[in-house]
Amino acid sequence: MPSVTGQPTAIKRAHRGGAGLPSTRKRDGAMTELVEAVDEVLLGIGDGVTRVQRKQYVAYQRLRNFACVCPPQHTKLLVYLKADPKEVDLVPGFTRDVTGLGHHGTGDLEVQLRTERDLDRARDVFRASYAAA
């Protein structure tokens, strides 16, 4: 595209490298490992699970989305599930009812994962969300 002076101007395009979760800041090793572990658990939860990369999150679906994983924050990874928050024992700092609150992804139950131990605690809720989809 020529400029006013007749010289071509460069067109710059931003490119986000790599598959998986989009991120605007570099993730540390522990968060990267946690993202990979969550991906493995959600893909292996049952038959016919597919991963769909969206702009703001990664969706895991059977017929419909049952889990959405947002890009990791500094200290935690947020997963939104289709499980009914009224049927889950909510634990402050771990699970939260986000019914009526704006967020990326599908589902009304937010699970906050900080370590792989949290992932082990969340497996039953992941299964309940898979069953609900």
Describe this structure in words.
Helices cover 24% and strands 20% of the residues. The protein has 133 residues and is α+β, with helices and mostly antiparallel strands. It has a six-stranded antiparallel β-sheet, covered by helices on one side. The longest helix is centred in the last third of the chain and has 17 residues, at 116-132.
Summarize the SSE layout with pairings.
Elements: H1 29-43, E1 50-53, E2 58-61, E3 65-69, E4 77-81, E5 95-97, E6 109-113, H2 116-132
Antiparallel strand pairs: 1-2, 2-3, 3-4, 4-6, 5-6
Along the chain, the helix and strand elements come as HEEEEEEH
Tally of helical segments: 2
Mean pLDDT: 78
Share in β-strands? 15-25%
* Number of beta strands: 6
Distance between the termini: 49 Å
Helical coverage, percent range: 10-25%
Strand order of the largest sheet: 1-2-3-4-6-5
Low-confidence stretches: 8-27
Q: Which overall shape is indicated by the principal axes computed on the Cα atoms?
A: globular
Cα Rg: 18 Å
Name the structural class: alpha+beta
Sketch the major β-sheet: 6 strands, antiparallel
Number of domains: 1
